[in-house]
Amino acid sequence: MLLNEEERALRDSVRSFLEKKVAPVVAGHERARTFPWELLPQLYEFGYVRGGVPEALGGDELPMMMQAILMEEAGRCWGSLRTTVNVQGMVARTLAATANEEQRARFLDPLLAGRRFGWFGLTEPEAGSDAGSLRTTARAKGDGYVINGSKLYITNALGSDFGILFARVIGAEGTDHGVTALLVEKDESDFGVSDIPHMPLRSTTSCELSFQDTYVPAENVLGALGGGLGLGMKAINAGRLNMAMGAVGLSQACLEASITFCRQREQFGKALAGFQLVQQMVVEIATITETSRLLGYHAARAIDAGEPGRYECSMAKLYCGESAGRAATLAIQLHGGAGLMEESPVERYFRDAREATIPEGTSQMQILHLGKALLGQSALR
Ligand SMILES: Cc1cc2nc3c(=O)[nH]c(=O)nc-3n(C[C@H](O)[C@H](O)[C@H](O)COP(=O)(O)OP(=O)(O)OC[C@H]3O[C@@H](n4cnc5c(N)ncnc54)[C@H](O)[C@@H]3O)c2cc1C
Description:
The chain is an alpha+beta fold. The relative contact order is 0.11.
């Protein structure tokens, strides 16, 4: 049995909530490119975002398997929602791991209550997969730091009121202290935010941030000077399984939509469901969905058993992300022309599936990580 009683109960209750409260508003928000932020606190009651935070800090401290189920269900319902709770979760976990008491009161507590929302700013125009080469600087000046540089593709920076910025700290005497995380507040610091029109996840914003002599007070430094890259990578590693499970949910949605459509649609005097070539495509979606689910659950259970799980998470991210693309391609094919129309859910699944192979380490980055683990040699550079 894949899920125990408690896990099944969580899956069923969150699925029922998403179907009743969220699914009916998805198409409207996608068209308007808006997001129902007011729904998030209700979702947090199931363990979204709070699940990755220790109970002592106000979180739910859920086993990874429960968090995986939550992300699978979010992905089955709506990619923009899955991405949004994933990013909030990354911000929450990073704050929980490093924030001091005053920072927790300002940022983490209101985030867990659904009163504040944060972005996670690592990628830059010249530093994507090679995140460690980032160029944004934070130069010591007076009681704080002056930031110069830019960030790219930052999810929901428009829509959030603060963020975690990764920048290279330069001390007053010119010493490079390395990549450091800083908390940047919209109302406190002056910086540019603009949404870049994008194909998938239309109810999220994908933003460029520009910092020109932007002042950030010293009390906003998160964790140790020079400790930022380690923090960022830790958050991304956990996000990797979330992305994988979101992709499993998306593949599942492709399967369900295809089965419904093929049973209803008739050609040549019978339902599409009765044609062998149609069955072949449906069975392929079902098989890669089930394989993806097994890989994702395996990674979650490895972490819950106390293993690092990095290898398993990379393999899940690689396979589940690529498979979601294949599942969505087949779902479109099964729907014929109807699948390419915006009124069909599979049109959205197809766009959203393209995202699954890029953030939190592209498929190629996962292959290089797995290759190094298997062969003992890095092929990264
Ligand atoms: C929808 C979306 C949301 C995002 N949200 C965020 C966010 O909230 N915060 C954030 O910081 N970032 C975010 N990102 C950025 C994301 O993490 C990067 O896009 C990703 O890391 C890849 O970087 P890049 O786009 O610069 O591609 P590049 O690194 O330029 O890669 C381009 C291609 O080259 C390949 N490649 C690169 N190096 C190698 C190599 N050594 N060997 C083989 N192949 C290689 C890649 O796999 C890819 O296929 C988001 C991106 C998207 C699309």
